[in-house]
Design goal:
about 160 residues; alpha+beta; Ubiquitin-like (UB roll); three-stranded mixed beta sheet; two-stranded antiparallel sheet; 5 strands; about 25% helix; about 30% strand
């Protein structure tokens, strides 16, 4: 809702003054961040990982921008993927003039975790140099635990 205008003045032929006129528009207040669909992680844990924050004692208008929201969604997806949820999907719905109050904003995050992939078994094939017992001590991938693609790649 911000507007930027340009005002040009030429008091003489050798001088041009350019003034940028900025109207920031009305400030919005983020009054609510709602999270739904999450079962694996608690609301509190997810909120603690987010930069977007509703208004409170320290942040009178909250903290919100499209950039922060996009970054939060990427970060939350990464956290889910690191815990075996390869198909996680998170969508955000922004509600302006929330509950009919001008310039109040709410954000609803809908999480579809998808299935969690767990490591069923771990087999080491082709190794003839180091004992399997020693290799299993240095490999981070563990049967029964969530599949973590980044860690599994490091184990190779």
């Amino acid at each position: 809702e911000a507007k930027v205008g340009i005002k040009k003045e030429s008091p003489n032929p050798d001088l041009l003054r350019v003034a940028y006129v900025i109207d920031a528009g009305p400030s919005h207040k983020l009054v609510r961040v709602n999270i739904s669909g999450n079962r694996y992680f608690s609301d509190d844990l997810l909120r603690a990982r987010m930069q977007v924050q509703p208004a409170g004692r320290l942040l009178s208008h909250g903290r919100f921008s499209q950039t922060l929201l996009s970054s939060d969604i990427r970060g939350l997806k990464d956290m889910y993927r690191a815990n075996g949820f390869a198909q996680v999907d998170i969508t955000a719905n922004e509600i302006d003039n929330y509950r009919g109050v001008q310039n109040q904003l709410a954000v609803d995050l809908a999480i579809n975790e998808g299935p969690q992939t767990l490591v069923g078994a771990l087999h080491i094939l082709g190794n003839q140099t180091i004992s399997e017992e020693i290799l299993l001590q240095v490999i981070s991938t563990v049967p029964g635990q969530p599949l973590q693609p980044r860690i599994s790649r490091c184990d190779l």
